[in-house]
Amino acid sequence: MAYRLGDLAERVGAVLRGDALCEVDHVGQLQSALPGAVSFLANSRYLKHLANTRASAVIISPELADKSPVNALVSDNPYLCYARTADLLHPRPEFEAGAHPSAVISEDAVIAEGVWIGPCAVIEAGSRIDQGVFIGPGCVVGAGSRIGRDCRLVANVTLCARAKIGERVLIHPGAVIGSDGFGLANDRGKWIKVPQLGSVTIGNDVEIGANTTVDCGTINDTCIADGVKLDNQIQIAHNVEIGENTAIAGCAGIAGSTKVGKNCTLAGGVGLAGHLDIGDNVHFSGQSLVTRSFTEPGHYSGNLPAVTTGEWRKTIARIRRMNDMMQRLRVLEKRVEAIDARHKPD
Amino acid sequence: MAYRLGDLAERVGAVLRGDALCEVDHVGQLQSALPGAVSFLANSRYLKHLANTRASAVIISPELADKSPVNALVSDNPYLCYARTADLLHPRPEFEAGAHPSAVISEDAVIAEGVWIGPCAVIEAGSRIDQGVFIGPGCVVGAGSRIGRDCRLVANVTLCARAKIGERVLIHPGAVIGSDGFGLANDRGKWIKVPQLGSVTIGNDVEIGANTTVDCGTINDTCIADGVKLDNQIQIAHNVEIGENTAIAGCAGIAGSTKVGKNCTLAGGVGLAGHLDIGDNVHFSGQSLVTRSFTEPGHYSGNLPAVTTGEWRKTIARIRRMNDMMQRLRVLEKRVEAIDARHKPD
Amino acid sequence: MAYRLGDLAERVGAVLRGDALCEVDHVGQLQSALPGAVSFLANSRYLKHLANTRASAVIISPELADKSPVNALVSDNPYLCYARTADLLHPRPEFEAGAHPSAVISEDAVIAEGVWIGPCAVIEAGSRIDQGVFIGPGCVVGAGSRIGRDCRLVANVTLCARAKIGERVLIHPGAVIGSDGFGLANDRGKWIKVPQLGSVTIGNDVEIGANTTVDCGTINDTCIADGVKLDNQIQIAHNVEIGENTAIAGCAGIAGSTKVGKNCTLAGGVGLAGHLDIGDNVHFSGQSLVTRSFTEPGHYSGNLPAVTTGEWRKTIARIRRMNDMMQRLRVLEKRVEAIDARHKPD
């Protein structure tokens, strides 16, 4: 969709420096954009591409705006401003309401107006789907599920029985919501399944990445609060609770009954043990293993970044020699003690 | 389903202290249960909720039974007793036999009595499905597969060609059984695919979590023995063998041709390298990287739990300074040697 | 399919030592093969099984050929030679062209000759599928996708809108190509979605494992070059570029905008942070966490292999005591300094 820069600036809350009548109709990267495109500079790593950009306009911070060789949309938060701009210039295509003839919809499911149910999707008994929901091809909506307004299940998503999804939730392909938790009791060496009777409650404005799994609770529900963002390939175990606006990157895993607060971030591959209590505003760096509760806001880490394998072998050898060092240090302390005793400056 | 406590105690092998005629019909958590519910105390972390519970009965160990303010179902293994109780009070709904009209079933597949094949499920040629099996919506059962009695494929499960599944196996959504192993031969820099000609053999009473993947063998089969329990998002590579009653938590991965014994546990995120031999009763803690065989029973670990990022930076700096410490220690040893030589108490 | 060893040797580029007329028709493992089978020895770990093999022939290196008790197919690269042999003896079954009646194919999709579209597969509007492609059951091919000649989507694969797939690409069940990248801008504590407008471009001869996810680019495309091999459960984030013939093992994850060169290998569970530049011929060992760019060819590592939990606790304690050691070392240095000052051999 095309906008004049003056109108666009107003819509996205930026201050325009340049030609208000210049028309733009798509977004592009600084280094490859052509006229008609709006680009952005939100990471100083890409500053080197600014001088030669051919974009019609650049979204940029006040500090750097002077360096823009083209029209500037000045914003204190260029990345946010870019997100709004991209939304305006590239609106998601509308979809028609209805159901593909190959969709299988239980007679007692309640489907609101304005819902699309795609080919080979399956809507089981007792589920309720609110207005404006898009159910893509191959999705399964389990018995007794609830899906709030304007949700989008992209394709091949599985909601197990009784999942409760809020409004404007976006779920990517292959995600599984409400699978059984991993509950096992041991009977003289054999594992006996503990029935997983709870479900999953997901708030509003949540995004769930491709092939991410969220298990149902054992008795009560696994709970994902409003505004939580989950990347791909994440595992959320039974009875976990995640607070508002927490964002979790790919390949992270949270074990059973752990609570994560609001506004936390977990970087890629982070693993949280079970039954922990993580407070608000807690941040874990990539691949951290978390084995105890952290209730105070802060940044936490515990991993060793890769170096050359040669250097790494030395590091491991040093760690293994630490006991020996300690031993030699103690011996030396005693000898110095003895020397001092003999040679006191008395 | 409703039971009187006296009958329930008998069925689940507990000793009742209290009112044998009291009726219960569901399970609940200590802190939120209402009358009519049975709760349990299996983890001392939750002892604080016992005094105020409103449940009709609590499953509890003999040591703690005196502290129960309500009827007590006393058991040496409260969690196991709870699992049995939940099974009785919340039996899985029966399903009707038959096939949904949208299911696609090959004419030469052999389907026993009492099988349900759900909407948009696909049963390919030459497969055999035994009595009491439930195939949920969107599942694919590849050509020549065998599924034993009373298995349940929840939804959107993929069995590749020739997979052999035992009895009472439960497979959660998105799991893939029998995908090609990652076998590559190098031809002057280019990777040439090694045909993956084996299959997967899964024993009885196995559970396979959501989005878990089990590759087929290169020539013979990848083998998962009776009673193995796999959580979500696990990767089992080609030719792996896993022994009876081993339980593996989410996000773990086992590389090709590794053998894992019986009664092992792998915590979340554990990674086993290829061609290893892991004995019986071996236990790995979360995110451990296993690069050599461990044939002796025991507990093994190798990861650094997260601390504050500030403290962590110091730890890394210390590790990097170890060489310097060693150097200074050696210098000091020589100096003390020299001092002692000069000042011998001769 | 049956071959005489003389013909087979010629076809796979091996030198035959033995009976050119001996007929073989399948492959087998050294220790379990029966007459009629071709086996191979590519890993010295299995040399112990050579003397007793009952295979009709063994593919083997020149150095070991003398030790074969049966016909030998001598090759400098036995594993590669085995891959070719297995391909010849076990050709993939042909498939018929056409579409299963339950497949849902958009009227304006362009489907070439010789394509099979399986049951419950969905081909959306504007997609183009070239000659010889196999689309298995339950696959979704998103709007505007392109699939080159002779690709195979095994089952339940999801291609999101506008994905571009080269020729001879093999995609295993549950893989998701072109899901939204994890792009979030922060608006006073709330996460705002950054529209993901790019797509995914996949080259020729790529293999993508079960339940692996490849996100679309934010503006331009995520790019996977020719000959790249991805194992199962891998996460490739938006804007990532992977160079030719790079192979990545299971459970690895690559964060957004990172570039990986040609001929690299990432072992299982490796995690690459975002915005990195990894050169050609770079190799990371299992579970390495990579937080900076590595542009030089080489082997890199950073993880601590598991040991007994007892030993591991000591290691952690030692690391925590390092500050104390350093302190004691400094004290000792000063004391020796003082001793030397008092007792100079003047």
How would you characterize this protein structure?
Three copies of one chain form a homotrimer. By secondary structure, chain A is an alpha/beta fold. Chain A folds into three domains: 3-89, Udp-n-acetylmuramoylalanyl-d-glutamate--2,6- Diaminopimelate Ligase, Chain: A, domain 1, CATH 3.40.1390; 98-300, Hexapeptide repeat proteins (UDP N-Acetylglucosamine Acyltransferase, domain 1), CATH 2.160.10; 309-342. Helix content of chain A is 15%, strand content 29%. The first copy, chain A, has four helices and 40 strands. In chain A, the strands form six sheets. An eleven-stranded parallel sheet of chain A has the order 8-11-14-17-20-25-28-31-34-37-39, with no helix packed on it. A ten-stranded parallel sheet of chain A has the order 9-12-15-18-21-26-29-32-35-38, with no helix packed on it. The first copy, chain A, is flat. The relative contact order of chain A is 0.06. The mean pLDDT of chain A is 95. The interface between A and B is large, with 75 and 74 residues. Strand 39 of chain A pairs antiparallel with strand 40 of chain B, so a sheet runs across the interface.
CATH topology of the largest domain in chain A: UDP N-Acetylglucosamine Acyltransferase, domain 1
Give the proportion of residues in helices of chain A.
10-25%
Number of domains of chain A: 3
- Sheet with most strands: strand arrangement of chain A: 8-11-14-17-20-25-28-31-34-37-39
Classification by helices and strands of chain A: alpha/beta
Provide mean pLDDT of chain A, rounded: 95
CATH architecture of the largest domain in chain A: 3 Solenoid
What's the end-to-end separation of chain A, in Å? Answer: 93 Å
- Point out poorly predicted stretches of chain A: none
**Level-1 CATH class name of the largest domain in chain A:** Mainly Beta
How many extended strands of chain A? 40
Residues in β-strands, percent of chain A? 25-35%
CATH superfamily (homologous) name of the largest domain in chain A:
Hexapeptide repeat proteins
Major sheet of chain A: size, sense and barrel closure?
11 strands, parallel
What sort of overall outline of chain A do the alpha carbons produce when their principal axes are compared? flat
- Greatest interface and its participating residue counts: A-C, 75 and 75 residues
Number of helices of chain A: 4
Q: Using only CA atoms, what is the Rg of chain A?
A: 28 Å
Quaternary structure type: homotrimer
